[in-house]
Every structure is written in C-alpha cells, then in structure tokens.
Amino acid sequence: MKPPESIAAARVLAYASVSSCDFQGSNLFVDGVALGPVPRLAIAEDLQSGTTLLLRCGLDWSVLGLSGHPSAAAARSRAEREYRGSSSLWRETGYSDEEARAARETSWGETRCSICGRTPDHYAALVKSPSGTSLCDQCLNDLDTAR
Ligand SMILES: [Zn+2]
C-alpha cells in the first residue's frame, strides 16, 4: 500500500512496511511513553523547512511519532537501529514537490481559515462556528479589535 503524497505537511520520499522486522526498541517518546513497534515507516521531507523526517505510521499512514534527521540516509540508519532488516525494505515513492504540495492543499480543506485562507502551518488555533465557518486566531483577533 503506497502512502499519500503528503503526510504531516511533508513530501513522502520512501516507505517501508516493517511489521515483519525485529523491533529493537525506540528512544522516541510520545506523551511521555516510549513508542512501541509500528507497522509502517515513511521518510518525508518537510515542505516548509526541508527537514528530513522519519515517520512512524499506522496501517492507514496516520503519524504515531516522528523524528528529524539531517538526511534520508541518516533516517534510514535510525530506522535500521529500531527495526532490524528494514534497510532492505525501503521503496521510493517518486512523488514530486508539486504533487506533495497539491495533496497538502486538498488534505487541508476544512482546516483552512474561511476568511484569510491561512493553513495550519500559519495559525496557532482555528475556531469553527456552528454555521461551518472556520476562523483562525489571527482573524478572531482582528474581529475583536474592530468591535
Ligand atoms: Zn484567518
């Protein structure tokens, strides 16, 4: 199963199904708990910062945990330390930057501010009105000061 073009606003470069690998443990903590074995891994490049991310994913490619690395090679060797044998399982996605950006736009959909169009990487909070309008914190502030 191929991952989507964009996960966590990052372009997916490669992926691996690691459920058959020997899990060596992880020093990755999520909410204070060490992350256990996951079925899928993805290496992705953050569309904003260019940072290489090693994503620990569920079967539906939801992100369970992630770590940042200087390069894809570094992410792979980290994956190999956590999932022995994973280095031979990687497959390239071949997704272009444009494909990833287009996918990110689509997946944002309702998380976009209805007024200014800001996306989650540009606001701190989003409030949804009963009428279905979404307002980012910055637009809410503008409304408050205009009152
Ligand atoms: Zn806004």
Q: Would you summarize the structure shown here?
A:
The protein has 147 residues and is an alpha+beta fold. The chain has two domains: 6-101, no CATH class; 112-146, no CATH class. It is built from three helices and twelve strands; from the N terminus they run E-E-E-E-E-E-E-E-H-E-E-H-E-E-H.
Protein model, in words:
The protein has 147 residues and is of the alpha+beta class. It folds into 2 domains: 6-101, no CATH class; 112-146, no CATH class. It contains 3 helices and 12 strands; from the N terminus they run E-E-E-E-E-E-E-E-H-E-E-H-E-E-H. The chain has helices at residues 72-82, 97-108, 137-146; strands spanning 6-7, 10-17, 22-23, 29-30, 33-34, 40-46, 52-57, 63-69, 83-84, 91-92, 126-128, 134-136. Strands 1, 2, 6, 7, 8 and 10 form a 6-stranded antiparallel sheet that branches. It has a two-stranded antiparallel ribbon with strand order 3-9. The chain has a two-stranded antiparallel ribbon with strand order 4-5. The longest helix is centred in the C-terminal third of the chain and has 12 residues, at 97-108. The protein is elongated and about 60 Å long. The chain starts with 5 loop residues before the first strand and ends with a helix. Bound molecules: zinc ion. Zinc ion binds next to helix 3.
Mean pLDDT: 90
> Helix/strand/pairing class, anyone?
alpha+beta
Unique ligands: zinc ion
First-last Cα distance: 51 Å
- The SSE order reads EEEEEEEEHEEHEEH
Number of helices, where a helix is a run of at least 4 consecutive DSSP H or I residues: 3
Strand proportion? 25-35%
Quaternary class: single chain
